[in-house]
Amino acid sequence: DAGVIQSPRHEVTEMGQEVTLRCKPISGHNSLFWYRQTMMRGLELLIYFNNNVPIDDSGMPEDRFSAKMPNASFSTLKIQPSEPRDSAVYFCASSGGASETQYFGPGTRLLVL
Amino acid sequence: KQEVTQIPAALSVPEGENLVLNCSFTDSAIYNLQWFRQDPGKGLTSLLLIQSSQREQTSGRLNASLDKSSGRSTLYIAASQPGDSATYLCAVTRLGNAGKSTFGDGTTLTVKP
Q1: pLDDT per position in chain B (113 positions), as tens?
Q2: CB contact at 8 A, B78 and B61
Q3: A32 CB near a chain B CB, below 8 Å?
Q4: Which has fewest Cβ within 10 Å: A75, A94, B18, B31?
């Protein structure tokens, strides 16, 4: 398996623009997680899905952030409008099957100018 | 609210030394605990997962232990190598919150040749 796939790997945008991050989980996994990592706050869980249904979105910082999982093989995290304080590395992870181990993607490094 | 602490924040050792990384958590009602490795600019790689009913897990030169009553876990690395240099994070999943993990800030390990 190719592992968790994220795109784009790097994104540079200007404040106020819409940003869409994409994730393809490992085939057969039924849980998907979106995390944000910064030097100041470490690794934070933003939202997680189970069987395509959002279970806990209490980590989503504000209404500018939204996440969807239209099917078992695809999820998006959208920021609209983006702000400089959203600059971070955003990770997607998935888990499922017999193992509860979370497998992380390579991350999307976002810079909002 | 679960809090996860990793001390020290950074550790430097000569090659060949055995070492222990520490992780402490405030709420002992956990579902599992996972140790990850993160290389600079990369995603997280799962090393070991310990279920709440287990005391330890081993993989190669790595051994992780769990003591729920004291709220502690340790990651033991035997015969350290320069390739072990990375940041090591522990993540605790609380009972009743399956899938929602709280991460420590990590210990950055440098193994000098």
Answers
A1: 889 999 999 999 999 999 999 999 998 888 899 999 999 988 999 999 999 999 999 999 999 999 999 999 999 999 999 999 999 999 998 776 666 789 999 999 999 99
A2: yes
A3: no
A4: B18
Q: What Cα–Cα distance (Å) separates residue A113 from each residue in A16, A51, A69, B29?
A: 9, 35, 28, 42
> Which of B30, B32, B46 is the best substitution to test chain A (most A C-beta atoms within 10 A)?
B46
Phi, psi for B83 (deg, rounded to 5): -70, -10
Q: Which residues of A touch B104 (CB under 8 A)?
A: 42
Distance CA A63, CA A36 (A): 16
Nearest CB among B45, B91, B100 relative to A56 is that of B100
To the nearest whole angstrom, how far is the Cα of B30 from the nearest Cα of chain A? 14
